[in-house]
Structure formats: structure tokens, C-alpha cells
Amino acid sequence: MQSEVLLHWLRQLTEPDTEKVKQATKQLQSLSLTNDFLLQLFHILRSEQNDQIRILASVLLRRKLSKSSETITKDVHEALKHLLLEQIQIEANQRIRKSLFELIGTIAKQDLQHEVVEKKKKGKKPNKTETTGWKEYLHLCGTLVQSTDLKQLELGMHLFGTLATYCGRFVLEHWPHTFNLITSMLKTRPSPTVCEQALIILVNLVKEIHQKQYMQTIIDLVPIANEAIQYLFVNLTAENTTNLLDFYEALLDCEVPNVIGTHLQSIISTCLQIALRNDSSVLESVRYNALSILAEICRQKKKTLLKHQEILPPIIQALLQIISSAAVDPNTIEDDDDDEPVVVAGANHVLEAMSYHLSPEKFVPLVISQVEPMLKSSVANERKAAYYVLSGIIDGCCDYINNNYLEPYMTALKLGLRDVNSDVSSAALLALGETCAVLEGEISKYSVEILPILMEIMVQPDNMQNHNLKVIRIYYAVEELIGVLNDEHKGVIPEVLRVLFHVHASTTNTKIRELVLAVYPAIAIMMKDKFAPYLEPVITQISPNLSQKPNTETLPVFCTSLHTLASLCRAVGTDHCKAILLQALEFSLNLYTEIDEPEFRSAIFALGGAASRVLKNEFSAAHVSKIMGYIFESLRSLDWIEDATATENRKLEWVDDEEIDGASNGINDEPEGKAEKDDDDDDDDDDDERMTFENAHVEEKAAATEALGDLVENCIVSAWPYRKDIIEYIKNMLEFPNVLCSQNAVTAAGNLLISIHKMVSQTQLPNEKQLIQDESDRLIADLIPNLCTIINTTASRSLAQIALDTIKSILEEFKVDMLKHMALFEKIAHSVQKVLAYKTKCQQESDEDNEENGGGEGRDQDGRDDAEYDAMLITTGGDLLPVLTSIACAGNVQFFPGYLASVIPKLQKRLRHQASVSDRSFVIGVLAETVQNMNEALLAPYLQSLFTMFHQYLIDDDDEVRTNSCFGMGVLCALANQHLIGQYETILTRLSHVLVKETHPRMIDNICSCLCRMIVVSPQHVPLEQVLPVLFQHLPLREDFAEAISVFTCLNLLYEQHFTQIESYLPKCIEMAASIIDDERVLPEAVPVIREFLRSIYAKHSVAFVQVMQTLNEPLRVIVTKHLQTN
């Protein structure tokens, strides 16, 4: 083959004529099969004057070598090696040099792999020290790096850097010599190029380190490398600094522990300096990378950061400076995205990471101290930045802010809403929405002042006609603020609805109407059936959007209308929504195959799930079948995967289109300092299988999985025929690489298990019952291990939390039936134990303090430095302890006493000095509920410590902590039976002192309940003549109606055994019983106890009973009469 022929076709490949390109491609494919194709390509690369052709030849060479190395003869292979080493020493074109380095690296790696394979074939055990590799290459490297000529030294370091990039493990075998070379070059810095290549070598070696023997030398190199990085940022152009921070990333990813801790402050300082350089000397992407490293440090090095708290203020100050330096005009943004500068996004990510992973007690005060002056600043950008910061930290620190900063926090937000600067008020709206999304309780009282402001902003003419980021945030804030209203403040909702109706009627902007429709579900959820009077005008707004097939322009409002309708149906119920629900569902399902948009399918799945929840067994099997088929189709779909390189019209099977295009477009000016590892994907055989997410398709899968969970929960009979497919898809989605999809799959798995277990008790026919029971047994054995694996191995705390919640629901449904699956029950118990011991994957930290002590074992288990998300996971795990105890006590579970001996002390350890309110409330509450479900044998070892704990916290400053302690003391007295009688005087004394100044209704209810439980255990050890007047003075129950059973159990006993003591209180007792027996807040098991109490009085003291009845109002008399007549 003549090289002129090959050159001809290469030139034709670069021409704009499509037909000529196709012809050239076909000819090149044929020529590539000849033996001398590679050598001819190399000849063209070396001799051709046209750089465009040379670049194309180099691209084809590298791809052919990477993809078809097995077909290359040994002679050609060796000749290429020789030619490459010659050419690299004389090549001047930087793009060609880059390709030559890549070719050399590719061949070097192939030679090493081939050498190892050959030794295996000969039966030799591969010995690292015997691996020789490409000897000429190594000799040339060794010669050049010792040269006193700077150009020769730079080339040698380039070659060495290429070797480390492609063959890092091989270079690591020669660590002492490599270490000396790197150290020398980083210290002496003969030139920026030499220093840069030394850093590249170091980065690639750190990636390969898996043994502690290298740890100290790496630690010694960190400060030297850190100084070198700062030097390079000064001496390289901005375009050539893109990979300088890879060293820090490699250290964070390094499998050898404790290589970064001692130098963490200097690394943070360097990253901050780079992130703050707001000029042309540093690219924004590099600044973002520096911030990403800081965020990762916050995730991995929490203990070190908290140990050296002086590091935190400079970080926070720098982040605020970055955020305040950016100007965003919210009125120019037409999408839901903030479109904020990438560096601002990076700063926000760091703040979020700090809020999620640092102790709020130590983090939040530092932030607030720096934000407060900015809120009062005369500079609009600083005020705006302050609100962005508040919105960024609220999710991770919501409890702490709620308990310590709520009033000033909400006051600042209220001022921000009225700020004269539109950017600032927009940021305040975002902060308000984010705050309301995660807080509850006390925040409701601020709605009275804030909602009128929001309504005033909504009806401003510009905001009714122009759709922009600020307007989006207005409706987001309204929606979230509605969601936190308590009963006392719900009176403002009708006025909000009036404003929404007005905006919808007045605006001509479809997107504004969309925003209005999206608020209605939040209102309906709060009002429930009281929303019914407003349903008709809302349906009137929705109906036109669902009356005809949507086009591209109207599809968003069509989907929003479906979502709104689905939410309204869930909130308001069947009677009001059934007709339009079925109509919209039928219409949408008929359009399903005509509209190929993931957003449309997601909306249909939401509506189908809502229909199943509202209609339940009335939902037609035909609809269930159709929706189920579409769900399966969605879950099978691979549309969420985008193959970034495989295309139908690939010009050559071994070369990427974009590379040929890049070459043919004359890209011949690649910067000299550009890292040689840009294309190191070539090293992997699956280089062309890179995948990316399509967000809309992932959201579709999440919606499909959620709908699947709804269908198996509400329509299990109709779904029964599809159960094998359902199980398969649920298990697949449990492992899907998206947290929301996995969360929905976990919930669906729980719904399926619970629904099928309910079917067992609801089925009467023995054969069917056994079939369903067998299926239930098989499913629980299949799915519970999956859920436990998620708890133990997921990196997502929220996913682990949902898995724990789901298992709790399953246990509450199965109850003692779990004893048939003892191995599964024990597996669940030990998963909870791992959570409480900080031993699951999502609780692991790479801090050196933990690593030296064996990971999770070394982490403090007192919750002292827990982030709120850590504490939430512990709380969720602890919540399983009462139900586990209840099931274990129903059977003789042998492992459980030892299990409690491990778990209870861990929980009590969290009641350290200065424990947070949430920790105190959680520990005391969960142990009180656990005691309630214990038996005497299980309780005995902990009786004294639990008594001491409950007694101590009866006088806590927090209402909830006191209430939990009082409940715990009551159930402890009940279960301990006679064993605590000696402490009754102590208990009564403390309760008496507490009651004198107690104002919290729930605590008062629990004091009454505790007294009642003590009386039931031993009335003779309670001074009834002193206690009963106090007890009846504080009855009836006002909030905690769950305690009705303990109160009326006590009243029954007193009536039967101590009538003279209770006789004067009978009228009040009858009135209390009448007013509470049909209250939906009373537990079902309390009703028979109350009914028996009324019947006893009526049977034995009918005259007094009738007299009291005459004083009751008519509804209460009807209630009492009904229960007296009930069998």
C-alpha cells in the first residue's frame, strides 16, 4: 500500500462533502485491515506538512492501537515503539506531542499487561519485581530526567508522567527512586512544566496506593506538593491549571487512612485562596473544583474540622464573600433553575455540606455571627448573599435553628420580603420557602404576619403577568408556608384562596396559572374535607386544561393540572373528585401512546396512584391492568441512559466521530500545559460505555415506582396476578442509581408485604388463605434481606432512614407472625444495632480519629458532634426498638436479652452533659415506649438506671422531655409491679413539686396517668386522700388522649375496691367518660374499659347515674345510652 493512497483518503475525510466523507470512510475501513496501515499512518504523521492531516493520523493511530491491538503483528508493534520514541524527541506541534504521549502510554500499558499474561500462561506466579515493561522507554526516561538540559528534563518528566498515568502500579513498584525524583523536582522546580509533571506523577501514584507502608512518605510530600501547587497557579496560564487540584482529590480518595489530616489546614487555605481569585488568572471551573474539594473535606473530615474549629470562620467568611460577589437578575430568568454562577453554586454546596455534616451547635452560631451584619448592610449583594446562606443551611440544621434562632430568623425573612431591591427580596422568598419546607410547630405563628405580605406581592401587576425566578419563588413560599399552618392559624387560608382565584382569573400568562394550580394541593392537604366548598372553582380552572390533547406549548400546564388533581383527590376524598378523576384518567390513558414525553407519563402515574388511593377496591381491574402495563414499560425503559459515544453513523468503528471532527476542523493549537490524561478513558475496555442520566426519565421512573407502591397498597386484589413482575421490578429499583427511585421502591416493597399479609386475615377460604400465606412467607424472606442490606450499605442517610421506617411498618403489621421468621427478625434487630452503633456505611467517616480506632467503633456514640441528619437516622433506628421488644416478648426470643444489653446503654450514653433537647427527648421517649413493651424479666437489669433517668428528667426545662420522662415513670411503675414501691414516696414528692408550676397540658395529662398507674399497682402505697383531690383537679385529659386507658383502668379499680374514696367524684367521672368515649383521639382498646366503667356505675348506683345523665347535654346522653346498650 502506498502512503499517497492513504493520504488521499485522509484528505478527503476532512472535506465538507458528505458523499466524499462516506467514500473515504469506506476506503479507510478497508485499508485499516492491511499489515502496514499503522506504519503508513505514522509516516504521514511524521512527514506531512498539513497539521490537520497529522492530527487526524495521530487520532486514528491511537484508536487503532487501543481497539485492535491483538491484530497488530509483533514487527509492526516493535517498529512503532522505536519510531514513537524517536518522534517524541523532535516533535514541535503540541497537539501532536499530546497524541504521541498517549500512544506511548497506550503501548506501555499493553506491554505490561501482555508480560503478566505470558507469565501466567507459563505457570509463573506474577512477581512485581520481575515486571520489566518497555525497556527502551524506561531507559529514555531515566536518561532524560537526569539531564542538565532543561528541554531534555521537561521531556523526560513528560514521559515519566505519561508512564505514571497509564502504568501507575508499575511505577509504584519503584517507589523509593520515584519518591526521590518527585521530591527533588517539587522542591527545586526547574520549570513550571517539570513541576507540573512531577505533580501528575504523584497524583497517579496516590491513586494506586492501597498499603500503609507508603503513608508516611505521602504525608511528608503533602506540604511540598502544596507549595508547588501554589507556585504553579502563579506561573501557569489559567487554561493550564485545570488539573492542579487533582492531588487533593486523590488524597481524599486514597484508601490508606490518615494521609491528609495533619496538613488539612494548609490544603483548606490553598483551596480558599483559589476559590477567592475572582479574576482571569483562574478559570471558574477551577474555582468550583476548589470549592468541591472543600465540600468533600466537610463530608469526610468532620471530626478534624470540629477539633480545629479555628478553621471554620475563614471558610464561612470566604463562602459569603463568593456568594455576595455574584449578581443575578431574577427577572431575566425564565426557568426553574437559578442559573447562578458556577462558583456561587460551589460555595452553596460547601455550606450545605457543612450544614449536613457538622454539629449545628458549633456550625450555626458561626454562620449567624457573620450573616447578621450582612443582613443590615447597605450593599444589596451582601443582603442577597445573607439570604442565600440562610436558605442553604436550614435543611441540615433545622431543629437547632427552630429551637434557638426562630424569632430573629423569621424577623429577618419578613424584612427581606419587603426589601426595595428585587434580587434581595427574591433571595428572601427562597429562604422563606426553604425554611417552611423543613420546619414545623412554632413557625406557624409567623404566618399571620408573612402571608399578607406574600399576598400583597402576588397581586402586584408585574407579578401577575411576568413569569420569572422571583415569581416562581413567591408561589413556592406560599405553598410551603401553607404547609406549616396549625389549626390556630388556618383561618387565613380562605383569603389566600381568594387571592389565588383572583390571580388565575386576571393573568394571561399560562405559566403563572400553572404556579397557581400548584399551590392548591398544599391548601387541600391542610383543610382536608373542609376544602370541598372550594373544589368546584378549582376544578373549573383545571378542566379546560384537560379537555383536549396537549401540544408542546400546553403540555406543562396539562401535566401540572394532572398533578394538582391527583393531590386534591388524595386530600379531599372520593365523593367530591370521583367523576373528574375517572374522566381525566380515562382521557390521559388514551393519550399515553400518542405523547412520548416523560413528564406526561409521570403525571399519569401520579394520577393513577391517587385514583388507587381514593377508589381502592372500586378502582376497575381494567384500569389497574392498563396502568400496571405502562408502569412496567417505564421501569424497563433504558431511555434514562445516554450512550455518549456510540452512534449509528460512526465513521470508523475504532474512532470517535468527535475526534475526527475535531481533527478535520483544524484543532492544532492545544495548549502546551494541557494534562496528558484528558483521554485516559482509553485505558479501559469499556471506554465507549459512558452513561449519563436524563433527569426527566429518572423522574418518570420515580413516579412509576411510587404509583406501583400505591397500587399494591390499595388494589392488591387487582394487582395480585402481576405480583411476580411487581417483585422483580421493585427489586431492580431498589438498586437503581437514584435515591428517589430507590426510596419509592423501598416504600413499594413495604406496601406489598403489608397488603399481602392483610389479605391472609381477610381471606376465608382455607385453600386460598394458605396460598396467600405461602406467598407472604416467600416475599418476606425475599425482601427483608434487601431492605437490611440497604440500611447497612447505602451511602444515603435518607434512603437508610426510609428503609428503617418501612421495616417498622412491616413489623407493626406482622407482629408475632415475625416469630415464624426468626432469622429475619434477628437480621432486622442487628441492622438497628448497627445504626445505633454508627456502623452502617452512611454513618462512616474517614477521619483519622475513627480510622485509628477501627471505623465505627471509634466514633463517639454520645451524639455530641452529630449533624442533624446523623441524629435523624439514629432516631429512626431507635424508633424500631419498642416494636422489636413487643414482638420479642410475645415469644421466647433467646438473643434479645443480650441484644438489649448492648442497645440500651448506647442510648443512655447519649444523655451526656449538655445533651441537646432533641437527644434528650428521643432517648427518654424511645426507652419509655420500650419499657411499655417489656416483661419483668427483660426489665430487671435496667430497673434502677431507668428509674434514675426518668426521675432526673421529670424536672427538665423542655416540655417534651418532661412529658416523656413522666410517661416513662408511669409505665416503669406499672411493669416493675412491687419492685418500685419503695420509691413511691420519692416519685410522688417530685410529681407534686412539678405539678405546682406545670402549665404544659400534655405533661399534666401524663402526671395524672402516672399517678393512676401507681394506684393500680398498689393503692395502699399511695395516700389516696391526698392524691385523689389533686388528680381530679387536673382531669379530664386535655391533650394526651392515649392515656385514657390508664386513667379509666384506675377509676374502675377505685370504684370496685375503694368506693368511699371515689364516691364524691362519680359525677365528674361519668361526665369525663361520656365526653371521651367516642373521641377519635382515644385508642380503640380504651373504649371497652371506659364502657365497662359506665356500666358498673349504672348497674350499682343507677340513681346517681341518672341524676348525672340529666345534667349532660343531649349529644352526650345519646352517646352514653348507645354504649350502655352495646353488647
UniProtKB/TrEMBL annotation:
Biological-process GO terms, alphabetical: protein import into nucleus
Keyword DNA-binding annotated: no
Region annotation Disordered: where it falls in the sequence: 660-688, 843-865
One Gene Ontology molecular-function label: small GTPase binding
Listed Pfam families: IBN_N
Residues spanning the signal sequence: none
SMART domains in alphabetical order: IBN_N
Keyword ATP-binding attached: no
Compositionally biased intervals (Acidic residues): 678-688, 845-854
Residue ranges constituting the Importin N-terminal domain according to the UniProt record: 24-106
Domain of life: Eukaryota
GO cellular component, one term: cytoplasm
Protein localization: Cytoplasm
UniProt keywords, alphabetically: Cytoplasm, Protein transport, Repeat, Transport
UniProt-recorded name of the protein: Importin N-terminal domain-containing protein
UniProt organism field: Rotaria socialis
